[in-house]
């Protein structure tokens, strides 16, 4: 597991681009995945120190991806985010390490990322 590598899975190119810019500026290596159906394979191949996962994505939702990660024994922490009002409950039920409501504050995001990577 690479503690400087973060995999971001989101179907929104604007969110991916924003997160990539913010995280790279902080010195992290960022891997992007815009299709949740490819997320598990990409996570296995990249072995990131942290996964950022949107909850609402087409085909496979973020909570389904997280459940599959847990079933597969993938140890890395997962920060889930969503604009949905029930996002926190969904993230908690799936076993996310942390949840952020969109739109999120950049400093709050970076604090969460730093905390999760230091575990």
UniProtKB/TrEMBL annotation:
Phosphoprotein in keyword set:
yes
Q: Which UniProt keywords apply?
A: Phosphoprotein
Where do the Response regulatory domain residues begin and end?
A: 5-117
Chain positions with 4-aspartylphosphate modification: 54
Q: Which PROSITE patterns match?
A: RESPONSE_REGULATORY
Coiled-coil segments on the chain, per record: none
Name of this chain's protein: Response regulator
**Which organism was this protein described from?**
Pedobacter boryungensis
